[in-house]
Amino acid sequence: MKRVELLSPAGNLKKLKIAFAYGADAVYGGVSHYSLRIRSGKEFDMESFKEGIEYAHTLGKKVYVTINGFPFNSQIKLFAKHIESMAAMEPDAFIVSTPGVIKLCKDIAPHIPLHLSTQANVMNYLDAEVYYDLGVRRIIAAREIGLKDLEEIKKRLPDLELEIFVHGSMCFAYSGRCLISSVQSGRVPNRGSCANDCRFEYTLYAENPETGTLFKLEEVEGEGTYIMNAKDLNLASHIKEILDSGVVDSLKIEGRTKSDYYAAITTKAYRMAIDDYYKGQFEPSRYQAELHTTKHRGFTDGYLVSRPYEKSGTQKLDSSISEGTHQVKAEVLEDGLHFLTKDKICQGDELEIVAPKDAKLRACSNEIGVIFERDGKWWLKLNKIIANKEYECIHSGNINPVKLPCQLPPYTFLRKKIADKVD
């Protein structure tokens, strides 16, 4: 039986390694403004991206290159050069958005498989057939599509792979077709530089054009005026339903510009969900508990399993501030002997250890601290905080590596539950 692929975001080389450490089968990322995440593209350069592809292949994993921007005429020669450079690194696929770029890729690098970006907004089998005939071998469906529509596409095109987003930020507009950022700040969403204007708070007015009178529209108490702020997608509880359909080949997590911790925990949660499904012991509460530790805007299950007109509660009107049940306190370095502080830590604090997939932890105790297991979780308690010197407490502004009492796996995180949050 072919197992579904777990596809995680790789905003830079470290996040790529973290995603694989926590169980991703493949990652996606890109270099430069040819991708739809300019900030993320700047975190990779040609050398580090090539290193990431080589690293992935040593693990038997895959890397898909985002070349999903919408080029102007003046950029086509640069696009062609970029495609040629990317093809030389032997990635596992190109992610593209337009028929013209599909043709360009077929001309320059016919041996590289093509995946169609969600920006192409495929919602039906007619469009899917057109792109399949052009040479596309996987379609990343529009976020607005329903599971029944995916089943119909697969029925008509059984050899076409289908990929869906299961987690991450949702766009206020139709799969990214938004001009608000362009109008207000000159930053073009479909050129990779969205300013996320939909996350802002707005004050609304009504004008009488005959008299010039301007009325402020009053906020409904308790609702708020973040009128375009969409909640984040979270389909972890529906993985069984999705996989039971038998039509989805890849589950994709959004978030190349999000934190190292986000890359780790979202990958961990969906890896657990997928593995549990195949074991016949699916437990949504386990995955949701992990996902709720990340910063988010509230969660929604989007439109895959419910039609848009049936949905309510997909917007977070009161705030765009992220939430999470836990605070990330530290991130263990690649040497496994030190960590970098992400939030205030004091002597005597007990911190939960979150380690990569299949990591083997062991208890230890010495003058620096104790690592121990309790209630099925692993914990670290520091007796001493030793960086460049000894501290009673250390803060995130301190960039000196802090000694661990004994070695932990690279890319392990230390976290603490926020007292006023509940699971």
UniProtKB/TrEMBL annotation:
Enumerate the Pfam families for this protein. Peptidase_U32
Report the domain of life of the source organism: Bacteria
Question: Protease: present as a keyword of the record?
Answer: yes
Can you name this protein?
Answer: Protease
Keyword check for Transcription, yes or no.
Answer: no
Q: What processes does the entry annotate via GO biological process terms?
A: proteolysis
Source organism of this protein record: Nitratiruptor tergarcus DSM 16512
UniProt keywords (A-Z) are:
Hydrolase, Protease
Q: Which family does it belong to?
A: Belongs to the peptidase U32 family.
Name the InterPro entries for this protein.
Answer: Peptidase_U32, RNA/ubiquinone_mod_enzymes
GO MF term (any one): peptidase activity
